[in-house]
Specification:
Helix content is about 35%, strand content about 20%. By secondary structure, the protein is α+β, with helices and mostly antiparallel strands. The strands form seven sheets. Strands 17-18-16-15-21-22-23 form a seven-stranded mixed beta sheet. A six-stranded mixed beta sheet has the order 3-2-1-5-14-13, with helices on both faces. A two-stranded antiparallel ribbon has the order 4-7.
């Protein structure tokens, strides 16, 4: 009898790296997770050590395989999902980075973005790339490293420097690194650089010229589900396992939530908060501050596009509340503290620590708490911290309905904060639609596994994947309309006050 086959998936996130092994039913066979350092050299700067991340990924793979007690050759394919926009430039001959990876949250390119804006219009390239000029995206980060780090400009000219987001960096190492590593990315990650043309799905010559980035340092753009290359015998996986799936984390969650039909939407509550709406084979240009992005592309099939609303601070606000204020010991303790009060007591917490993302795109906004009185204590602040994610999600939800012309009737949710009952109920109350959580909440890494498995025939098609998706929990809106509007008006007033 042949040994059972599995699919592996790496989830390289903002705060940690994880490795999962899934069976045919999409069930988790084993998993392992390790955190990596957050490096803050200056206010607004956020960096990671790429070599530390590479080593952490190798470690989680080793332990994940041990926990599963399977042979490496039982893995049919490996998928990767990753924190998007986090940018690294390295020497392809040695694998040594020229500088730390600049993380998506980093704001050092603010002046550079303003200088690139034509007549001060931060949306001047939106039609071509689907994105506003913002510190969030990879293109300005690449330009900053080339211009500011000693020796990089010369290395680029000598073709001794290549770029990648975290997916590209890891795939390069997994397929051999300096010994023939494959230098690729997929359409979802490429669509977050400001350098890919949304229609051609290739690097745009005009954008490369504007950003001052030579094409030869960029990875080849491929679909999200195909065999890119094979592991080497010297590596952690052993020989000849296909690396066959690659999706940015939020697009991977869209795929893992099986949002394959235009009009289906998901929201991931993680470090940040990310809502994506499948808009089908046509890209929809946003008039209300959303991003137009590639949702996924499976092999030779047409690319599916999405509208995305990105919130910079969601779960990381709870971490800040825990670490900087010291009012709770564990992140999950915040719900118990928030339940010591009946409501927010009239306070709102706008977590604009690194500006506001969608739909405002205000890098000058700063975090604030409004409505403080003698009545307020730590329970109210805890509640305001939780509610901030739901208020921000409603802003994006409304923008999506306006842009797409689609009335959304439900929202699929995932991510670490979905375990917070108070947040999920408040979200359903604010949106007045069902909020639905699947049985498998690890949708990003599952999406990467699905993409990898489809490419090697482990799963036949997307209909087969749909059958694996099942509801775990559903929250229905219970709040009276007047109360809902009152709370939301209070939030919007607080947001306006955050603009500096």
């Amino acid at each position: 009898m042949a040994a059972e086959k599995y699919v592996g998936a790496i989830d390289q996130g903002t705060t940690s790296s994880r490795f999962f092994i899934f069976n045919y039913h999409g069930e988790i066979v084993s998993r392992h997770q390790l955190e990596h350092r957050q490096i803050y050299p200056r206010p607004g700067w956020v960096e990671h050590d790429p070599l530390e991340i590479r080593d952490r990924v190798n470690d989680v793979i080793k332990v994940g395989l041990q926990k599963a007690a399977i042979n490496r050759d039982q893995l049919c394919g490996i998928g990767i999902t990753n924190q998007r926009e986090t940018s690294v430039i390295w020497n392809p001959a040695t694998g040594q980075p020229y500088y730390n990876a600049i993380v998506w949250q980093d704001t050092r390119t603010e002046a550079l973005c303003e200088n690139l804006a034509v007549n001060g219009d931060m949306d001047c390239f939106r039609e071509k790339v689907g994105l506003p000029l913002a510190t969030y995206f990879s293109g300005p980060k690449i330009r900053w490293i080339i211009e500011n780090i000693k020796g990089v400009k010369q290395a680029v000219e000598n073709k001794a420097a290549i770029f990648g987001n975290m997916d590209t960096w890891l795939i390069w190492w997994l397929t051999g690194g300096p010994d023939g590593g494959v230098h690729i990315t997929d359409v979802t990650n490429a669509s977050r650089t400001m350098l890919m043309n949304l229609e051609t799905l290739d690097w745009d010559p005009e954008m490369l010229e504007i950003m001052g980035i030579p094409r030869q340092m960029l990875p080849e753009i491929r679909s999200s589900s195909e065999v890119y290359g094979y592991t080497k015998s010297t590596g952690v996986f052993g020989d000849e396992i296909p690396i066959s799936g690659d999706l940015g984390d939020q697009q991977a969650a869209l795929f893992g939530q099986t949002c394959f039909t235009p009009g289906e939407a998901k929201n991931t509550y993680g470090t940040g908060c990310f809502m994506l709406l499948n808009t089908g084979e046509k890209s929809v240009q946003s008039k209300f501050g959303l991003l137009t992005t590639v949702g996924y592309k499976i092999g030779d099939q047409p690319a599916m596009y999405a509208l995305e609303g990105s919130i910079a601070i969601a779960g990381s606000l709870v971490q800040w509340f825990r670490d900087n204020l010291g009012l709770i010991n564990e992140s999950h303790d915040i719900e118990d503290l928030a339940r010591t009060v009946e409501d927010n007591g009239g306070i709102y917490f706008v977590p604009a620590f690194s500006g506001l993302f969608a739909p405002h795109w205000r890098s000058d906004a700063r975090g604030l708490i409004t409505g403080l009185t003698h009545y307020i204590h730590k329970g109210h602040i805890a509640r305001a911290v939780i509610e901030a994610s739901a208020f921000q999600a409603r802003e994006i939800f409304e923008a999506m309905e306006k842009d797409s012309g689609i009335h959304l009737t439900a929202l699929k949710v995932d991510g670490g904060m979905v375990g917070n009952e108070l947040l999920m109920q408040f979200q359903a109350d604010l949106l007045d639609i069902p909020v639905i959580c699947p049985e498998n909440r690890e949708t990003s890494v599952l999406g990467a596994a699905y993409a990898a498995g489809l490419a090697v025939g482990f799963w036949k098609n997307q209909s087969e994947l749909k059958r694996h998706w099942a509801v775990d929990k559903k929250w229905e809106g219970k709040m009276p309309e007047q109360k809902r509007q009152e709370l939301y008006d209070g939030w919007m007033n607080a947001v306006r006050r955050s603009y500096s």
